[in-house]
């Protein structure tokens, strides 16, 4: 397999925390590893070269994905690798014209897959009542997400870029038809994989301060408003550096949940899933 030089990692806990949180006070962390360098350096890539991926990339990424934990090892997920440019173009259109899907050479469609379990049960002559419950769908979606994130980390360690495509759920029925998904299989999201365009590097997007996310022993929201106000400022700086419009993170969040219209078709997801055979009891 062709090897890649991964993008420079941040290489120390202080640098990693500073990059991820833009914090002036860094926790006194002595624990560190090369994997943590990679994890803290994550950045979604939306600008790609059209170049093919090195031989073996797909197999390595799927192996990494399958190395993730799986609820009871039931492995209720599958992945469809789409390389065909015409199909990628159709998927790009279904995802709101996200051009990175058409440009990068590969999109992996992670699906919650109860159909394999149904086939196994049929071969064993057993009923399949358990497939009808919301929790079983959730297990498939969770397994798919955990697998995908392992693939993301693997890709980034090889110097490749990725972007999740949740927007494929906007028109999930057409996506399922495009992929010829059988009953009891539902797209969870896509994952574009490609070589990042070095002319348009992605930046590390800051995250909420840990004080807004980490609750010790019991939940508490004291100090949250101040933490989020500080984060809005850091978010402005990031947007500015990336040449993106000035936005408050908190205003974006509030707008996104203000109306079902922002779900862009996903407000009908439960109906679509039932049509796919998930009873979601
Ligand atoms: C489940 C999921 C779906 C996403 N869907 C999209 C998408 O459709 N298009 C896109 O450009 N980014 C998408 N993203 C990427 C997020 O916007 C991105 O992860 C977030 O802004 C944080 O930025 P970062 O990954 O660079 O840290 C998605 C991320 C996740 C986890």
Automatic annotation (TrEMBL):
<keyword id="KW-0521">NADP</keyword>
<dbReference type="InterPro" id="IPR016446">
    <property type="entry name" value="Flavin_OxRdtase_Frp"/>
</dbReference>
<comment type="similarity">
    <text>Belongs to the flavin oxidoreductase frp family.</text>
</comment>
<feature type="domain" description="Nitroreductase">
    <location>
        <begin position="43"/>
        <end position="194"/>
    </location>
</feature>
<dbReference type="InterPro" id="IPR000415">
    <property type="entry name" value="Nitroreductase-like"/>
</dbReference>
<keyword id="KW-0285">Flavoprotein</keyword>
<keyword id="KW-0560">Oxidoreductase</keyword>
<dbReference type="GO" id="GO:0016491">
    <property type="term" value="F:oxidoreductase activity"/>
</dbReference>
<protein>
    <submittedName>
        <fullName>Nitroreductase</fullName>
    </submittedName>
</protein>
<dbReference type="Pfam" id="PF00881">
    <property type="entry name" value="Nitroreductase"/>
</dbReference>
<dbReference type="InterPro" id="IPR029479">
    <property type="entry name" value="Nitroreductase"/>
</dbReference>
<keyword id="KW-0288">FMN</keyword>
